[in-house]
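Step 1: inspect the first sequence and its tokens.
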Amino acid sequence: MIRRIFKGATVTTAIALLAFAGSTTSMAASKVEVDLPNSSVVGGESTPLPILLTGFTYDKITVTLVSEAGNLTVADPDGKLTLNPGYTSLADQLEIAFNGTTADVVSILETGVTWTAPGDATTKTTLALRVQVGEFQEGTSYDPATGHTYKFITDALSWVDAREAAKLMTYKGKSGYLANITTSEENDFIATKSGADDVWFGGTDDLGYVNDALTLAGKPTVAGPTQTTGEYYWGAGDEAGIMFTTGLDNPVAVGDAFNGWAPNEPNNWSNSEGCAVTNWGGDKGKWNDLNCSNTNSYIVEFSTTQDQFAAAVVTFDNITGDDKDAVPAETPTEKLADTGYNPWLLLSVAVLLVAAGVSVRVASRRR
């Protein structure tokens, strides 16, 4: 807390200057505070989980709640929240993601979240929780693990038409491409964020499309035939022209590449399948090869960076041990004291006032 006593004619100016410095920085600091249960909770018991969001000025925000164990429920009796793609319910979920106007989300999270501990009356569990909050952009999902942004498109297009449509999309200055799925974590993320079956992504072993990718990457083209050997490449983006699978029916990952093929896929059925889908037949995160002329929804990836979201995505996380309220990173030139005021500005004003013959007393204590 800060106490100030000013004397002299410059009092009004000094107060206005200090107030401006403090309000500017506090308005910029979006914050997530969670009132965690004070002790372990008996299995099967539900406990309120107040979550306080402050400083978010976006029209709409998106929130992801993740519990390490047990189930989360968000009460939304008036239907003000919209589930994000890939999520089916606000009740009894290990992970929930939704969006809404900032005012509605703030109000609901403050009183409408409960956590049910896992197990039965013989067990007790301490809640470990992640809360991620950011600006909502229609149809997009941000993956904090990669820093990339993904957009699920419901329009049914052929693989090549989906590829061309993705090229025309931009987000935060980055051009889109059919998503490249390079880790199991990214595969899981995309599987839940694309709310449909049989979703095109960036893998292909069609000779023509493979050579397009190799040309894009500045690499020599190949003579093929790739499709009969299951040599799958990424079609665009950061990994354009990189082979990640070889072989049909029992494919082998190339190098340490991640593969998510369903059993006995890809198989180039009827010698006509050269493009890849995920969520094959409703099996989340499982890949299959289909005829490239089939029409399906698709997932677009944008190679955004974590830095682009440093001030827009705020996370509370005690699952990984960080139980502090997260705020956007401070700029090195304006590191703030715990009070929220710029100490150098405060010192400068004090010096000016003392030089003018005005007495100043500032006392502070930690909150």
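Step 2: inspect the second sequence and its tokens, then contrast the two.
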Amino acid sequence: MNKYYKYKGLQFLKDIFDKHINLYDNIHICAYDVNSDGKYPFQRFLLINTEQNKLLNFPTVTTNKLKKQSSNINSNINSNTYTDDFINFAKVSLFALFKVYLHDFAEFNYGLSFNGFYEYENNLYLFFDVTNCNIKISDIYRANTLWFVTIEEIMNIKYCCHMPIAEIVTDFFMQNNSFCFLLDQNNNHYEVPIVGYVGKPENKLQFTFIFGETRDYSNGMFGPYYYFTNFHSALKEGLIHQISKTGHIKRNMIDNIIDLSLIDEHGYYINGGIVRFAIFTGLTKFIENNPLDAIDNSTIKQERLQDKRLDQNFERLTMRISDYDGKWTENYDSIILGKIELDNGTYIPDVNIVVKEQCQQIPLSYHYVDKDSLNGKIEDYLII
């Protein structure tokens, strides 16, 4: 895998800030780490949540003490001494956020790298690289303060695990998109991964988070590869052992052996959850169910068309969708099946994201599902 990277945004950062500190509306910390475990390196940015507003936002620096100190300085406010004091104060503020995960400031400070200052709409942004601080945040509950969020979640989804991301965060990266990219040796943008999920019973959550999703050999619709879905479909996977009533889209339908001790009398996992992934899709094939699309002539499809345990109407309606032999891998790195319309006017209920190589998936976090949040619809489920 390619481990080299350069952060594109560094070229726009300054060593000093331009105005008196009292004149800025807010002072935000942009702390990020870089994950190099998968096909390409990618960034995650630190956002904080308060249980009161359940909104993910930049950490801010409260600088009343520094403002009072700066008001007594008659010389240039951007003197090296004052700038260094300000940076050190921000480092202490950042360390305070990680106090649950770290206990030694000296060790934290040794791994921490300050990149520089950036000014946007009268706000001051301080960029810190925390990659070498080895901060591990994995089993995240909804009330937790700290979240590492991907660029995909900030820019496109605007949510992380159904928690909204503040507009000021999205706006900053939209308007200053050089801060969204890592560069390779030739100054080309690395691919920014999308986010996908899988649902698991409690006994498989940590295993999947540590080792990643396993290859599906159980007659998956698109061959023996790696299957993911969106947040709400994964919630169903993490709750209901038989995901689809039709039992035809997902890979763990009739072939998956379920430990019945994990299931309650209503068919729900007693405890279940989801695992969140960064996924490099590369060159992607999008399924459209176009009348001119090729028909799946695989042996598995023919067998399914004769299997009376399955919904034969559904099998016929998906003949231009399925690809049990995985022929898509000859030309593509991934395949995405959205909620497309079938010929009878119905829709496939769940999203499928399938990749062909193990290195295209990187586990980010895992979460337990809050069954008490159900109000009649699966979309009402949340993580605990």
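Step 3: confirm your contrast with the notes below.
The domain at 194-383 is CATH 3.90.228 (Phosphoenolpyruvate Carboxykinase; domain 3). The radius of gyration is 24 Å.
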